[in-house]
Amino acid sequence: DEIASLEEEFNQMADQLQLAIDEQRASRERAEGLLAANQSLVSSVSHELRTPVAVVRGHLEALQADPAKADDYARIALRETGRLERLVDDLFQLTRIESKGMQIENLPFDAASAVRESCESLQEPARREAGISIICDPPKTQLMAMGDRARIVQVLQNLIRNAIRHTPEGGIILVSAERDPDGDVALKVFDTGEGIAPEHLPHVFDRFYRADPSRTHSSGAGAGLGLAIAKELVTLMGGTISVESEPGEGAEFTIRLNPA
Fold first, then answer.
1. H helices of the chain, where?
2. How confident is the model at residue 179, as a pLDDT?
3. Whether the predicted pLDDT of 254 surpasses 50
4. How far apart are CA 86 and CA 109, in angstroms?
5. pLDDT tens for residues 15-25?
6. What is the tens place of the pLDDT at every residue in 227-244?
7. How far apart are CA 68 and CA 70, in angstroms?
8. 45: left (phi over 0), alpha (psi -120 to 50) or beta
9. 247 by DSSP, 3-state: which?
10. Cα 63 to chain center, whole Å?
11. Which of 39, 47, 203, 214 is the most exposed place for a label (fewest CB within 10 A)?
12. How many CB atoms lie within 10 A of CB 227?
């Protein structure tokens, strides 16, 4: 009996030791993963900052050498400064999300009115500057969902701006809201733009990812953070975001939220 008891205690000690070893291994792997992610983030941020900084510096030097073209050089420098500001703001938002510093509400709100608000401030600039029609098509009655109304408007406007960048002049962007057959509230942004190739679809929500790496800041491409932020925010509300697209046939982004 004493030998059997000793064997049982020894086995328990061995199990506890193995459990401790497994926990240490998992902690080490998490730490290594965080370190690798941090190094990748720093490298990506450095790359993203380099282009607009170089453009601003180049045009300021040109302005100094050729004051006669001051308006042109200043306009481009200001444009790139704006892109720098947006990049810094996106990075700040990601940092707040990851550090749990961003407060996300999960309260009932009218998704139909959120869709209308997201369209209102962008319809006229899109028509005037890009020749694109933004059609807002929410239901006339309330469509109650759970989430953070202000953040949903932010996400929708992010998706609309993304659609504007990838839709040619004369195109259409349709923003709608409806209740799915399963009861979820679906908010959709559809465009008649260039579409997304199948190999790029799984990565569109990855940070710093661009379907066309040749597109730089000077061509109007973003830093590849907007869709990543959109996914983080929607996930924090308990919802999902997805995309469907065919090359040459536009793209449709769908946010699904729990009903209120």
1. 2-65, 70-98, 111-125, 149-165, 226-236
2. 94
3. yes
4. 28
5. 888 888 888 88
6. 888 998 999 999 999 999
7. 6
8. alpha
9. coil
10. 35
11. 214
12. 22
